[in-house]
Amino acid sequence: MSDWEDFCDSKGWNAGSEADYDSFLDSLEDEPVRRTLVKREIEPVQDVTFFSSFEEAKQWAKNNLGQAITRSPDGSGFISKKKG
Q: Tens digits of per-residue pLDDT, 47-83?
């Protein structure tokens, strides 16, 4: 069997039927399923310093040995990150 015949068989259609072919084409015109994106809320983090630029964050890390920096969860800058 061809892929088309297998597909028609799975739908209960006759692969040679014009009416079933029309049903297939009509099914393609149905409104697509809409998916809603869920926006996650980022929880505020205590004892974190925010830096708008990498240079600012790098300078802070040099002045605060034992501390580190990482990209902010929302991607808008950098934050301090305690090691350990």
A: 788 899 999 999 998 998 888 898 988 888 899 887 6
Per-residue pLDDT of 1-57, as tens digits, reads: 688 788 888 878 787 878 877 877 777 776 665 666 666 665 665 678 889 999 999
Domain ranges, residue 65:
50-82
Asked if the structure places residue 71 within a domain, the reply is yes
Strands (E) located in 1-84 = 50-51, 67-71, 78-82
Structural domain contains residue 56: yes
Burial 7-21 (b: 16+ CB within 10 A, else e): ebeeeebeeeeeeee
Residues 6, 30, single domain; the answer is yes
